[in-house]
Write a structure and sequence with these properties.
506 residues; alpha+beta; BirA Bifunctional Protein, domain 2; eight-stranded mixed β-sheet; five-stranded mixed β-sheet; Histidine--tRNA ligase; aminoacyl-trna synthetase; ligase
Amino acid sequence: MSRDKDNLPKARLPRGFADRSASEIKAAEQVMAKIRAVYERYGFEPVETPFVEYAEALGKFLPDQDRPNEGVFAFQDDDEDWLSLRYDLTAPLARHVAENYERIVKPYRTYRAGWVFRNEKPGPGRFRQFMQFDADTVGAASVAADAEICMMAADTMEAIGIPRGDYVIRVNNRKVLDGVMEAAGLGGDGHAGTRLSVLRAIDKLDKFGPDGVRLLLGKGRMDESGDYTKGAGLDADTVAKFMTFIDAATSDLGETFFSDLEQTTLGESDKGKEGLAELAEIREMIDGAGYGERVKIDPSVVRGLEYYTGPVFEAELTFEITDEDGRPVRFGSVGGGGRYDGLVGRFRGEDMPATGFSVGVSRLVAALAAREGEQDKPLGPVVIMAMDRDPAAMGAYQRFAREIRAGLANAGLDLGCEVYLGSSGMKAQMKYADRRNAPCVVIQGSSERETGTVQIKDLIEGARIAKGVTDNKTWREERFAQTSVAESEMVATVVEVVSRYIGTER
């Protein structure tokens, strides 16, 4: 049946989304397995929340109730309630804790992994869907819980292969920032929107530098493409106060830093002074536990979300790579979190202490891939070639596959086996197996079936020999990469071949 090509749907991805290849999926799963192992060693247990929440469960922060789609993907159900794809994994956890408050053991130590969705402008390395892996402690008011989260974040970085010295866990306290806000005359409910704009401006310090932050604190900033970002709208004097704090926060932390900041920037703010005291406690705990080289106090850390109420932290990669043009590139933050004592309380009418950390899995996998450079393709499955396609032969091939899968599993070899199900001939099937990066193929035509044998071809050894083929003698030697064995010896022979290469690439 012919179709009108002009009316066919376009095969295209929505902006800000991406398909993932098998190698990307496997890389992410390997990273997540290592993260999960660290979290569980600290005594955290899994919980899972759905992709969709009621928009009101996301709170006054996300989305704006007057614009339900602002920042999130939202839609109405048949009851005309607004539902949203989750923006992060923290707000759904707060809803879960409030809904199951009487049943959970507190402190509640849990982890979650999953996709989150943000209805924001996509850009290079900035997607609307990405994977996060969170760990949270709910019900512990002491900053000892925050210090522990930072230690666990450091252990996580090393578990996934980031060596000590190539990352840092940076810690600040939002109470300090609130104190600076109060000293600048931006305290109280009437300035909530402005405070959020200020926080998001300061949060761009590592991306745009002090000059860019200055513009975002004032009228706004226009980037190289001509896109304009509205600023916080502060007057020049107030901008200058914040820049004084930023200059102090980005300087080296000497012994007098805390007292100097208290005297010069916080004014009479009790909340700001309380935040400084908590940072001093965290630093003492970190040093006492032996994490002083990996976890650093850094008052320039902000975190953009408004629901943080105390310590905030970021995991930053400090190593550099070079891009295709030879320019140095740093990935920066690959995770972060903080204390959010008010988020659970939105549902219960009273604060509930909570703190947590989120790893941006997608960004972290990209950073690891960039650091390691182009990797060889991982080993693919053993392929059983379909020399005959009658039901009896195909049934025998599937039996071979079942036996080989069991043999590989019994030998502790994590590799699959498949029967070729296409319609191509032998040459195309060999090309298919090669493109799948199969270590070997199993061949049984009618003549082998009559003698109860199979041919097993070692594709990796064959490829190695073939590289040096210059005459018939070498070509005949290449044939030794293929051997004939009895069906009863098939599994053992395949296991022997695979065991030569499992865990290697070519």
